[in-house]
Amino acid sequence: xxxxxxxxxxxxxxxxxxxxxxxxxxxxxxxxxxxxxxxxxxxxxxxxxxxxxxxxxxxxxxxxxxxxxxxxxxxxxxxxxxxxxxxxxxxxxxxxxxxxxxxxxxxxxxxxxxxxxxxxxxxxxxxxxxxxxxxxxxxxx
Length: 141
Prior knowledge:
single chain, about 140 residues, mainly alpha, flat, disordered C terminus, DNA binding, DNA-binding transcription factor activity, DNA-bd_dom_put_sf
C-alpha cells in the first residue's frame, strides 16, 4: 500500500507518516520500482497504535518501547511474563493520562457552558435559556 493510501486509511498526513518513519517507529518493508514507499498491514497497524498513543502524550521513545513490547508479545519473543509486566505499566500510564484528559475536558466544557450563558444573557435570554422578552416578527412589513 502506498503512502497516500495509508494516509487515507489512518487519517494521518503524509508528513506525519514520514516523520514516524524517520524516527524509526515505522519502517516500510519495501519500495516500488518507482521508489514509492510500500506499507504492509503491519505498518498500518503500527501507525494506528501510534495515532492512539499521541493524544496521551507518550514520547517517541515511549511509543517505540510500547510498539516493541506489542511486537514481541505477538511474535512470542522474550520472557512473556516480563513483557506483560512492562505492558501493564504502559496500560496504567495510559489510564492515568486518559483520566487527566477527562478532567481537562470537564474544565473546558465548563468554560464553554459559561460562554453560552453569557451569550444567552447578551441576547436577552434568561439563565434557563428561555427568552426574557419575546418579540414576534411581523409578516409583510
